[in-house]
UniProtKB/TrEMBL annotation:
<protein>
    <submittedName>
        <fullName>Phosphonoacetate hydrolase</fullName>
    </submittedName>
</protein>
<feature type="domain" description="Protein YjdM N-terminal">
    <location>
        <begin position="5"/>
        <end position="33"/>
    </location>
</feature>
<dbReference type="Pfam" id="PF08274">
    <property type="entry name" value="Zn_Ribbon_YjdM"/>
</dbReference>
<dbReference type="InterPro" id="IPR004624">
    <property type="entry name" value="YjdM"/>
</dbReference>
<feature type="domain" description="Protein YjdM C-terminal">
    <location>
        <begin position="47"/>
        <end position="116"/>
    </location>
</feature>
<dbReference type="InterPro" id="IPR013987">
    <property type="entry name" value="YjdM_N"/>
</dbReference>
<dbReference type="GO" id="GO:0016787">
    <property type="term" value="F:hydrolase activity"/>
</dbReference>
<dbReference type="InterPro" id="IPR013988">
    <property type="entry name" value="YjdM_C"/>
</dbReference>
<comment type="similarity">
    <text>Belongs to the YjdM family.</text>
</comment>
<keyword id="KW-0378">Hydrolase</keyword>
<dbReference type="Pfam" id="PF03831">
    <property type="entry name" value="YjdM"/>
</dbReference>
Amino acid sequence: MSENLPPCPECYGVYAYEMGVLLVCPECGHEWSPSDEPAGEGGDKVIKDAVGNVLADGDTVTVVKTLKVKGSPTGIKAGTKVRNIRLVDGVDGHDIDCKVDGFGAMQLKSSVVKKV
């Protein structure tokens, strides 16, 4: 297993290995050619939730701990479902742009959500 192999494009597993001219992911079974790698995606940052699931635009997530919100006496309670997230390069680690029911548009950190 070489340390220079790219992660699996399907599940982002890091245990890919070479089998002839193909790369194989033992986690999901996906096979791909190293030349199939999109040119622009080599430097894309993979954003993971609190338990390590890879997040994507449009996912639904659940808040895993109660969050304080400036100007709100209650904050966002743990277990609140947030639909249709958008991944962004936010400020101070806030990498999810979303609308939370009852609070409106805001940014959250991926470390406080879990993919549903």
